Amino acid sequence: MSGTNPNAWHNFYHCVGGTYGTWLRGDPRGYRTWQHQNHIDGDYKNPPPDGVYAPIFEYSKKQLKHPPTKLTKLQCQVLCHAMIERLLADDCEPIALAIEINHFHLLARFRHMEMSERDHQRQAIIHDGRDPAPRYHLGRARQAGTFALTQQHLKPQGPVWGRRPSCKPVTSRDHQLKVAGYIKRHQEHDAAVWHLKLGFLF
């Protein structure tokens, strides 16, 4: 389909997202602007110089309408179950998912989509050359997680998720194995982890 990323090995992606208010514009760990409108130096592996974006970070914190969302272990487990169930129901192929106090990692193959222009507009999927499938299916999985928390009276007062998770293409089998191992190791940090071969690890 149009927009499919040729760099995504067998259409696998490594998706990363944070909870509400825990990764903001100006974050000292680095951040990205919408559609890369501005060049921002650094990332979480190589943070920008201390204080360079401090005014933006302070402004971002003041704009929050709710306290940053930090998940309990039980909330992480509920989200993990719900997100995996939704991905499987949507005919995606999750390999590994880890959810901890303030972020998640997902490795999955996403089902190709055929979407009309009207569908693109309705789903607010941007015409930027990227494959819309990862963002669309990840959005549905995050919604399913929020709904599950609500059903079990576990939803925090504010939003569960932050905006705009990243979906980076997996480029090879070796890359896929490294990402899967990295996600599984989040169990050592008391995360709720699901692995294709091992099931739920909590």
Structure description:
Helices cover 32% and strands 16% of the residues. The protein is of the alpha+beta class.
- The radius of gyration over CA amounts to 17 Å
Structural class: alpha+beta
Beta fraction: 15-25%
Order of helices and strands: EHHEEHHEHEE
Overall geometric form: globular
Total of helices: 5
Distance between the ends: 38 Å
Mean pLDDT: 81
Question: Can you give the helix content as a percent range?
Answer: 25-40%
Could you provide a short overview of the structure?
This protein is α+β, with helices and mostly antiparallel strands. It is 32% helix and 16% strand. The protein is built from five helices and six strands; from the N terminus they run E-H-H-E-E-H-H-E-H-E-E.
Question: How is this fold's topology laid out?
Answer:
Blueprint: E1 12-18, H1 54-62, H2 73-89, E2 93-100, E3 103-109, H3 117-122, H4 132-151, E4 166-169, H5 173-184, E5 192-195, E6 199-200
Antiparallel strand pairs: 1-3, 1-4, 2-3, 2-5, 5-6
Task: Considering the chains and any ligands shown, give keywords for the structure.
202 residues, alpha+beta, six-stranded antiparallel sheet, 5 helices, 6 strands, 32% helix
